[in-house]
Every structure is written in C-alpha cells, then in structure tokens.
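quick one, two chains, predict together pls
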Amino acid sequence: MSAASEQTREEWGRFAAWRAQHRAAATSSWQKLVSRLVATSMVWLVVAISLALPSVLLLTLDNLRPLAPDIARPAQVSVLLDGQLDFAQAESLQRQITAWTSVEDVALVGRDEALASFGEQTGLSGLLTSLDRNPLPHTLLVSPRAPLAGDALSQLIEDLNALPSVDRALADNQWMARLNQILVAGERWGLALGGAMALGAILALANTVYLAIAARREEILVVSLIGGSPAFIRRPFLYTGLYFGAGGGLLAGVMLWALTLWVAGPINALFLLYDSPGQLYGPGWRYPLVLIGLGAGLGWLASWIASARYFSRMKVH
Amino acid sequence: MIEFERVSRRFGDQDALRNLNLTLESGEMAFLTGHSGAGKSTLLRLLLLLDRPSSGEIRVNGESTSSIRSRKVPRYRRRFGVVFQDHRLLFDRSVHDNVALPLVMAGFSPKDTARRVRAALDKVGLLSHERANPAVLSGGEQQRVGIARAVVARPEFLIADEPTGNLDPKLSTEIMTLFEAFNQVGVTVLVATHDLPLISRLRHRIITLQEGRLAGAHTQ
C-alpha cells in the first residue's frame, strides 16, 4: 500500500470508517427485512406477543395499586365494646390498652358520638332520633405500633377479643393488606412470566437470526477469506436482530394501547358504578419506550448468541 | 517474500504436505502445479491461515505466521488478494459493490473507494459493467471481476487457485496476461493451476508438487 493512500485513510479516520460500516450494515439489513415483509412481520408478532403478555399483567397491577392507597399505614383495629359498658368503664379500658407495647394509640368513640356521625353520613338523623335507645356500643379505635402486620396483627386482635368487656375486635383494613400481598405476588408472577417469555423471545430470535446467517454462508466464507473480521461479518446480523426486537417491542406497545382503548369503556363505567373517581391508566409513553428498548436489547443479544454459535461451528476467524 | 520451511500437514495418517521447503521472492511470479491431491490446495490454505501446519514454519516477509493469533488473521489476510476458481462473487450486489468489498472492510472513504474500484475495473476492462449484477456477466467477465476484487486494495501478494479452471484457452490466456501485468507493477503472484500447456508458454517459475513434496522447481 502506498504512503499516499495510507495517508488518505488516516484523514478519513477510523471513526468515520467505523460509522460508515455501521451505516452500510444498518441499511442493507433493513432493506433485506423489508424485502421479506411477511416473514419479518411474523417475527415481529412473535416478539410482540412475548413482550405484551407480561406487560399487560404489569399494567393491570399498576391499575390496581391505587385501590390500596394506604398500605403504608398500619391496619387499624376497631374494637366494639360490650353494650352494657358505660363510658367511664370504656375510658378505663382505653387507658389499659394504650399501655400495651404493641399499641401506638387508642381513640374512644362514644356511642352517642358514633350515632350522631352515622346519622350525618347517612342522612338518617331524623329516623335515628325516633329510636328509643342507641343500638351502637362504645368503640375503641386501636392503632397498632407500626410496623405490625401478619401474625403480630392477628395476635393483637386475638388479645383484644380475649378481653371480657370486648364484644368484637376487627381489623378494618385487613383486606388492604391482603390486596397488597396479592399485588406483590402478582408483580413477582408477572416478572417471572416476563423473564420466561423474554427468554423465549431470545431463543426464537436467535434461531431466526441463525437461519438468516446460515442462508448467507457463501457470503460469510468469501468475506472471511478476503480478510473480513468477525465484527464486520457479524454487524449486519446484529442490526437484523435489533430490528426484529425493536419492531416487536413497538408492536407490543401498539397492542398494549389497543387493549387499553378497548377495555377502557367498560372499566371506566365500572369505576363510575363504584362512585370511584378512578380512571384506567393507559400504557402512556413509558411502556412502549421500555418495550422498544427491551426488544432492541434482546434482539441484539440474540443475534450475538446466534452469530457466536455459527462462527464457532464454521471456524470463522 | 514467502518462505515454507520443512512444512508438513498431516490429516489422520495421510500426509498432504511433507517437509516442504519453498521460497517465493518478493516481486516474483510463479505457478504452482501438480495432480489433484498433490497438496496445492493445502499449501494455499496454510498460506491464508485457513489451516495450520502440523510441523514446520511459514514466514511472510521474514515474519512467522505461527505467532499470528486468530484475532489478527483478518488483517493478515488483507495482505493477500485471492482469486478463486469459481470467482465467488456475491450476486446480491452490483459489480462495483463486489469489487469494493475489501476497501469497505479496510475502512476506505466512499470517495477513495469509488476511485479505486473504477481503476481496478478499468484494468480488467470491465468499467462499463460497474453497475451490472455479476450474474449477467459471462464466465470470463465474472473471473475478471474476481481479479479486480483481489487487486483493488493493492495487496502485496496475489494468490490464485485454478483461476482458469472454467475458462476456454483464449480467456485463460487473457487472465494470465492480467496476472503478469499486476506482477510487472511489483505484486508477488502465485497461481495454482494444472493448465500445463498454457503456463509452459509463459516464462515464469513452475513449482510442481507431487504427493506433498516438491517434484522440481525450474525456470523454463
């Protein structure tokens, strides 16, 4: 090679050459995919379904989470006292329970106070005044010392129920704790499912790319013989995988949006029926963006695996 | 300069090359001949590091090839222009893009690449077919495209494996004349062929292999 040509190459620069090679690989791979649109669409669909299923699950959990807004607050225990107990006895019981180590605070709601607020909330005050006696007992609202959950909470309820002057103790937001646990379990389930489906997507992609590589065996041999480096040979296939994955991710995002729009009507109507101001959360831009990125990453990784496997079998240096 | 020193290559209990000693001077042109199975292909494969010798040493410009790790092999191969019997063109791209391949790999700028490709195609007389698909060319033309691809990056060595195997005598002569032209501008040329009538008319060293050994190296 002459000195002059060496110099031209230096001027052109390694980085520019590298960029040009990438641009060429990216373009040619894209053209090959588009020229086989049906086959390409099938790959996109496979990837999209693998990514969309776990996403739907996670999106559903995202929607359920606001229904349990006060998870952080420890469950409050309502203690309905025996109807025969007078207010002074109730106060002494309040002091007694406040001293327990597992208890943060105890509020006493007198039966008259309870009846009045019940009348206010329900608009039945007029009717209630016609009752010859107040049917409500005095109530203690026991706040456990945080964090108190699961067994400890059950133990506290048991202890309260064991008191002779207590009619019934119940944790009014135990269902929230349950829902929270269901959400946590559901999220893990979704992540596990997502991991498995992502692995499936990688294997499907790796196989597809492997076949694409094998179909261009002659070209790879020639390029390798005349001095093409493995990186140079691999590059177009990495872009093929990238396009497969990113396209699948984009399609998964579209699917997610379509599903959301489809179920939004009945779900929002359901919220209304429950007098809830809630509204169905869509996937927004975050879900599609993560899906495209994830798909692209998986595609790239799958192509890397496929080409490494092919090269080691073909003994491409 | 290419040197083979006591090079052997065994496949199982078969010797493809046995204790071969051979020197090809820089700027020399030589023909490598012998019956099929005499070791021509093995010799070329060893030279291009497609295979490694069982024993002995191959040196290129005094540098031993045994120390070249696989990462460095592509760079090493770019010092050679290789012409194949079946030309091995890629039919999914134009003549221009086929010839440009070694330059693209080596990282030449598009401007430089276009200039050199046109120069190489001009030398083999195919400049007018630059935009054609190689599939529409005749066998002789395809081989000339293959030669343009081999020389476009101006390699130190031009290696050809039966380049005239599929061509008639007239086209074969044209191809050999092309090789001589490249040799005259300083490229070291090694052509493996068994077209003895043709090469006996050309005044270059003939290296004959017989059962993996040198049968006789003489200048006509």
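Residues 47 and 174 of chain B are 26 Å apart (CA to CA).
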